[in-house]
Write a structure and sequence with these properties.
The chain is α+β, with helices and mostly antiparallel strands and 287 residues long. The protein has one domain: Cupin (Jelly Rolls). Helices cover 29% and strands 24% of the residues. It has 8 helices and 13 strands. It has a 9-stranded mixed β-sheet, covered by helices on one side. Strand 1, helix 1 and strand 2 form a beta-alpha-beta unit. Helix 3 runs antiparallel to helix 4 and helix 7 crosses helix 8. The longest helix has 24 residues. 34% of the residues are buried.
């Protein structure tokens, strides 16, 4: 794999320039100052969430639970008070525990006023903001977003490493059928088992406190929290009319079907998916 693609960066950008340069061309970009002047920029921290919402019971996902590798469908591994979880990720210690797709605005609407959807991302989905939390070395497996939306991912509180790969390499990343993820480990890629990885190019960069990453539809991402920190994502419907329909098919057909087949056939179904992914990649290698 070659992570030699260079992502554009800017401090600020107008709606017109964002649309013409990045949104309509489906090109990723990092914007440094979208949080500037917001209450979130002044107030948001692990301590702030602990003091204001520490008693809230939250779902926690454990990366060490290998059962979740068989399907995109995942359920929480445990529940705990939000404050107790925040204490874990505040430590300078590795942890497998993370929170994702957490609609914290639902429990505390004031947060949306503290960091409203940026003007460049206004649209039908701008009332929904999902939050993500992780501690030192917490990873997020390589995937692209199942709903086929564009994502504006703004990071707070620490450093996060992001590997971003364009959708044209999906086959070479051994995407499992009926899923939007791969079992390839980007930290230790196995080129003998997955030779298609040799032909993949992507981006590798860090997000710092206050950075916003625009991820177009279908972009693969693998993230590692380098420090205890958190992010919030806003979503926007794609300018390509076919993408929302593909997202609906993923959510309404492919994911439920995969869950059913995984439940009925278990490892046998996972082995079949691996074989299909290998055949797809081999076909692309020899094109």
């Amino acid at each position: 794999m070659q992570f030699n693609l260079k992502i554009d960066t800017c401090n600020t950008i107008s709606v017109k320039d964002f649309n013409s340069l990045y949104f309509y061309t489906q090109t990723p970009v990092i914007i440094r100052e979208l949080t500037k002047g917001t209450l979130a920029d002044k107030k948001w921290s692990i301590d702030y969430f602990k003091s204001t919402m520490g008693n809230l019971m939250v779902d926690i996902y454990d990366n060490s639970n290998k059962k979740t590798s068989a399907t995109a469908y995942t359920s929480a591994d445990l529940k705990m008070k939000f404050g107790e979880y925040l204490d874990i990720i505040a430590k300078d210690e590795p942890t497998d525990l993370r929170i994702f797709l957490f609609n914290l605005f639902k429990y505390n609407p004031q947060l949306k006023k503290e960091f409203p959807c940026p003007e460049i991302f206004k649209g039908l989905l701008d009332d929904i903001g999902f939050m993500f939390f992780g501690g030192k070395n917490t990873t997020v497996r390589m995937h692209y977003d199942v709903d086929y939306s564009n994502v504006l991912h703004t990071h707070f509180g620490g450093k996060k490493r992001v590997v971003l790969i364009p959708p044209c390499y999906s086959g070479l990343l051994y995407r499992l059928p009926f899923n939007t993820y791969s079992l390839v480990n980007l930290d230790t890629p196995d080129y003998n088992r997955y030779p298609g990885l040799k032909f993949v190019r992507g981006y590798d960069f860090e997000l710092n406190d206050g950075d916003s990453l625009y991820m177009p539809v279908g972009y693969w991402h693998y993230m590692t929290y380098l420090e205890g920190s958190f992010s919030v994502s806003y979503r926007k419907i794609s300018p390509n009319i076919k993408h929302p329909f593909e997202g609906l098919i993923n959510l309404g057909l492919y994911m439920p079907l995969d869950k059913l087949l995984n439940k009925v056939f278990g490892q046998f179904w996972l082995d079949i998916k691996h074989q299909i992914a290998q055949k797809r990649a081999n076909k692309m290698i020899h094109m």
